[in-house]
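From: lab user (bench 3)
To: helpdesk
Subject: output format question, protein + magnesium ion

Hello, I'm new to running complex predictions and I'm not sure whether the block I got back is the full result or only part of it. Here's what I submitted:
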Amino acid sequence: MIVQIEGLRKIYEGKQCVTAVDGIDLAVRAGELYGLLGPNGAGKTTTISICTTRALPTAGRVRIAGVDVVGSPALARRGIGVVPQYNTLDRACTIFENIYFHCLYFGFSAAASRQRTEELLAQFHLAERTKAYPAQLSGGLAQRVQIARAIAHYPKVLFLDEPSAGLDPQSRIAMWDAVRGLREQGITVVLTTHYMEEADALCDRVAIIDHGKILVEDSPAALKSSVGAETIYELDLRHPESLDALQQQICALQGVASVEKLPSGLRVYARTADGLLPEIVKTANHHGLRDISITEPSLEMVFIRLTGRDLRE
Ligand SMILES: Nc1ncnc2c1ncn2[C@@H]1O[C@H](COP(=O)(O)OP(=O)(O)OP(=O)(O)O)[C@@H](O)[C@H]1O
Ligand SMILES: [Mg+2]
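Helpdesk reply: Thanks, we reran it on our side. This is the complete output you should expect:
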């Protein structure tokens, strides 16, 4: 296991004590693309900050490639690349210089730094922007420079904190491709996100984190199948006062696994979709069916089932 987190806790002391990380254990395999998925304030950045030696834990320990990040921070940092949640490019330096100085800082010679920088600028399709300054770049390009800089010293593990926050959909897809490319180079990637689609599309395994605790951890496919349904129907009803009766009738239909109440309708979890839709529509029409939507299980649903809350709230 290349990242090992054991019993990690972080309490921010201040006027009010905040328990940001509340006993996290997790292990990331070498070469894995691992995601921490959770809402605002879940403790994602705090966990990453401790892993990357930017914050000290209150309790517990983190080892990266066997190196304890508290005991040997300088050594640990050699094995770690990090792209923080907010842009940390040096605004006074060009794109080239941002990467070049990073290489020098990590002990490369001037010639090796120049060569490595040029290689990265080509790999990340930045060769035309070498003389640009960070302020002249779009969010997507700036993010790419940050990733290029973060892996310049050949870290074993790259930590990406909310890599697609603030990116437009097209830049997000380009970033996903860049991250998949890193995995092909054998770099282990740990990323945080509150976009369930991102965790689903990118990660081999995902831990869902809330209030500083890990609620579940598995592959996206296994998490989604834990919902226990193949298809989910959401019914919007004109007469929500008769929900109880309708809920019972729909529960009795062949293939229905369970039915949940929504403020103005029902959510129906179906084991199979075969032939069920006409049955549901027929039954619900007697109760003023206004609209019906059909979806597949998502990580969002896993989160809702675990917490009773929406990931986006
Ligand atoms: N330096 C700090 N001092 C005090 N409290 C903090 C500090 N940093 C974070 N917190 C609190 O710790 C909790 C976890 O914050 P953290 O930034 O780790 O969450 P997050 O999952 O990264 O959230 P976001 O999606 O907003 O980035 C929050 O309640 C936050 O307000
Ligand atoms: Mg954060």
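A quick orientation on your result: The chain has three domains: 1-79+162-225, 87-154, 228-296. Let us know if anything else is unclear.
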